[in-house]
Specification:
It contains nine helices and no strands. The protein has 213 residues and is mainly alpha-helical. The chain has one domain.
Length: 213
Amino acid sequence: MTTDDLIARLTGELKPVSRLAVLKRVGLGLGISLVVSAVLMYFWLGMRPDMMTATGTMPFWSKFIYTLALAIIGAWAVKRIAHPLGSIRVNLALIGTLIVAISILGFVQLAMAPPEAYHYLLTGKSVAVCTLYIVMLSLPLLVGAFWVLRGLAPTRLTIAGTAAGLAAGAIGSLVYSFHCTESAMPFVAIWYTLGVLIPGLIGAIAGRFVLRW
């Protein structure tokens, strides 16, 4: 058998892949891990007791929109980096823009508050556990994101791991927001953002090994 015959046989057995295959895998991997993270939050931490009241306030929705936007951008980053030579520059720029926006809101709130309120606005009641809990809730999502990428074709492993970690941290922060009663913008800008960036760092380090072909 000649080389041309072998190539013809191999290519003849190929089947077309759906254009939605990557999107479906991202949705499956992150969707299942989101459910795992949400169940973990519910039985470990519990829903915030004042949820009905909180949903009628602007701070609740500001935090929700911030974490939801990060989660969407993070999931999109996983999809983009799943292709050979994929890039997440746009996603990083959007995440940076959101962080700047929430930081501005935090500075404005601090500027309008009396000095004696600064400490509470920055630390709230849960500063010791907020970022830790977000990172813990992001771990199932990081596993799910790595599963997604392991079945696809990322070639920039550190960047792919970063995308997986940022997506996991962002979605984890969204899940945690349904437990957390903190609503001050300075608090969210610092501790929620750290809860997103730390899994991003973990993903960047682990991705070089976990995603290796």
